[in-house]
Design goal:
Elements lengths: L5 E5 L2 E4 L1 E4 L2 H5 L8 H6 L2 H6 L3 E3 L7 H10 L8 E6 L8 H15 L6 E4 L8 H15 L5 E4 L3 H9 L4 E7 L10 H9 L2 E5 L25 H13 L2 H18 L3 H10 L4 E7 L8 H5 L8 H14 L35 E3 L5 E3 L4 H6 L4 E4 L2 E7 L2 E2 L2 E2 L5 H18 L7 E8 L5 H12 L5 E6 L9 E8 L4
Parallel strand pairs: 3-4, 3-10, 4-5, 5-6, 6-7, 7-8, 8-9, 9-10, 17-18
Antiparallel strand pairs: 1-2, 11-12, 12-13, 13-14, 14-19, 15-16, 17-19
Length: 486
């Protein structure tokens, strides 16, 4: 009898390595009619009986949280399942009260005294409010309302920053498939360094990595049935196009025939065997489509060197989507079902308040006491020039990034990016950067972080060893930007 593989992520948290994702409940409710909670909860029983005891939901997956709450509340079910959820707040300021209300709402909807795993998503790193939210979540974890804390759609640099800042992170959920192999780069290394487990979603690319799409002509938008298909069709376009995608599907089919399994099995097994991956999330339309028996075959075979060699040409032809994990939600091209962020929120608020004067100048203020004491602004705009003051890895009374100079520089760039955006600029407008470091032995770590953020922009740059005020600060940075092109 086939047994579903399990993995221990942390003390008290053991999961099935195939996690059932319930984002499609939101898709099922697109017409405005909510699913029947009891009936939909009934449809969870076959999954649990088969060994798929872990379910992934979110605050924005329609009625998914109430559905799993109904199931958990039934006699005998409390210890049978692991229920993961997410909190995806809109951009903007986040108070401790906001965080507590979000956690209390999830606890009520999921009928639980503590959340097994709460995964947090940040829309914009340039607005430091996301750090306020995370530190408040850590406090609630320490109180026992959250058993384990995770992230979702974080890139490698910011996952490292969070871990280096003392947040106790168990998982990062990221898109990972034969179509999207971005986590195989820096993300895997960071996860292994910090003991963070990857939970991979999009493993089947909304079903595109299955038999019905092999040999099929490129579909028009109105031929796509689900939000997931709309989303991952954009991934195909960004990674290399439909012809290259068909080459990958052909290779996938050959490997599946060798093992006498489905293409979905091979695509899922490929991700399941990647370093740092603890589990893969496969979506289910509870009560409508059942793939339980086919998914069990995942645990009857493994991929060998010959299989990986067979897949390699298709992977090389397709390439990688742009950027790092989660960039599809933070910068163009937005690889979402809608092609933008309109389904999620209306607009990004300004990260910092802006005031005018003296004269035609505009000033962005971060609100630190030193701006008043020393008489300066976080950034100033005069005409099409934006000048950003020397910036350290300070947020309120904390040093972000701990003792890691790379993480500190990444946070400096985040603050700079926020100041530029507040004054109508972009990081792409930067023409000069100046970096001051305390210890010249750390020049390479700092330079690599600078390269990761400015490698496509290539501003003029100066790096200087200097005595930086504040014993915990390893790096300081200032920039000049020119808006409006040439």
């Amino acid at each position: 009898m086939t047994v579903v593989e399990r993995r221990t992520l942390a003390p008290g948290l053991e999961i099935s390595r195939v996690i059932t994702g319930l984002w499609q409940i939101a898709d099922m409710e697109r017409d405005g009619e909510a699913v029947d909670l009891e009936k939909t909860a009934d449809a969870m029983e076959p999954y649990v009986d088969a060994g798929y005891t872990t379910f992934d939901v979110a605050d924005h997956y329609g009625s998914a949280e109430p559905v799993v709450g109904v199931f958990r509340a039934r006699p005998g079910n409390e210890g049978r399942v692991q229920l993961f959820t997410k909190w995806v707040p809109e951009p903007g300021p986040v108070s401790r009260r906001d965080v507590r209300e979000a956690v209390d709402r999830a606890l009520e909807r999921m009928r639980s005294e503590a959340l097994d795993l709460l995964q947090f998503h940040a829309w914009a790193y340039g607005d430091p409010a996301w750090l306020d939210a995370l530190f408040h979540l850590q406090e609630l974890k320490d109180e026992g309302l959250i058993r384990h804390l995770g992230l979702t759609n974080f890139d490698a640099a910011h996952l490292a920053m969070v871990c280096n800042s003392g947040i106790d992170v168990t998982t990062n959920q990221a898109c990972y498939s034969l179509l999207d192999r971005r986590p195989s780069r820096d993300m895997t290394r960071v996860c292994q360094e910090h003991g963070v487990h990857l939970l991979a979603y999009g493993t089947l690319a909304g079903g595109l990595l299955t038999e019905p799409w092999l040999g099929r002509s490129e579909p028009e938008a109105d031929e796509l049935d689900t939000w997931s298909q709309m989303k991952y069709k954009r991934f195909v376009e960004a990674a290399g196009g439909w012809i290259a995608f068909q080459q990958l599907l052909q290779a996938l089919r050959l490997v599946s025939l060798k093992h006498r399994v489905s293409m979905a099995n091979v695509a899922s097994r490929y991700v399941l065997e990647q370093p740092a991956v603890a589990g893969i999330i496969i979506g289910a339309r509870l009560g409508e489509r059942e793939h339980l028996e086919d998914n069990l075959r995942l645990f009857d075979f493994t991929l060998d060197d010959q299989d990986r060699a067979a897949l390699a040409p298709g992977l090389e032809a397709l390439g990688f989507p742009p950027g790092d994990c989660g960039d599809e939600y933070r910068k163009p091209p937005y690889l979402t079902a809608a092609g933008d962020l309109s389904d999620h929120f209306d607009a990004f608020p300004s990260p910092y308040p802006v005031v005018g004067g003296p004269g035609p100048r505009l000033r962005a203020l971060s609100g630190t006491v030193w701006e008043d004491v020393a008489g300066f602004s976080r950034a100033m705009r005069v005409g099409n020039r934006i000048l950003v003051s020397g910036t350290t890895a300070t947020h309120r009374d904390r040093v972000i990034g701990g003792s890691d100079p790379g993480s500190q520089l990444h946070f400096c760039v985040d603050k700079i990016e926020g100041a530029l955006r507040a004054l109508g600029g972009r990081i792409e407008d930067v023409v000069r950067t100046r970096i001051y470091i305390r210890n010249m032995e750390q020049w390479e770590e700092v330079s690599r972080a600078h390269g990761a953020r400015f490698g496509d922009i290539r501003p003029a740059n100066t790096l200087v060893q200097a005595g930086i005020i504040g014993d915990d600060y390893l790096v300081e940075m200032e920039v000049e930007a020119v808006t409006g092109g040439r």
